[in-house]
Write a structure and sequence with these properties.
With 46 residues, the protein is of the alpha+beta class. The protein is 22% helix and 39% strand. It has 1 helix and 2 strands. Strand 1 and strand 2 form a beta hairpin. The mean pLDDT is 88.
């Protein structure tokens, strides 16, 4: 049995930023990235 499943595979930063845009956030970006960690930010659309 493999330990990998949909809950253990990381999604790339670009795909997560796309999700944020689809959710209605503007000016999304990655402010910090290190190994498997990233700090993403977005501004609420007005």
């Amino acid at each position: 049995m493999s330990w990998k499943n949909e809950t253990t595979v990381l999604v790339g930063v670009e795909e997560q930023l796309a999700w944020m845009r689809e959710a209605g956030l503007a000016r999304v970006g990655c402010n910090w990235r290190w190994r498997g960690f990233a700090l993403l930010a977005g501004q609420a659309a007005r």
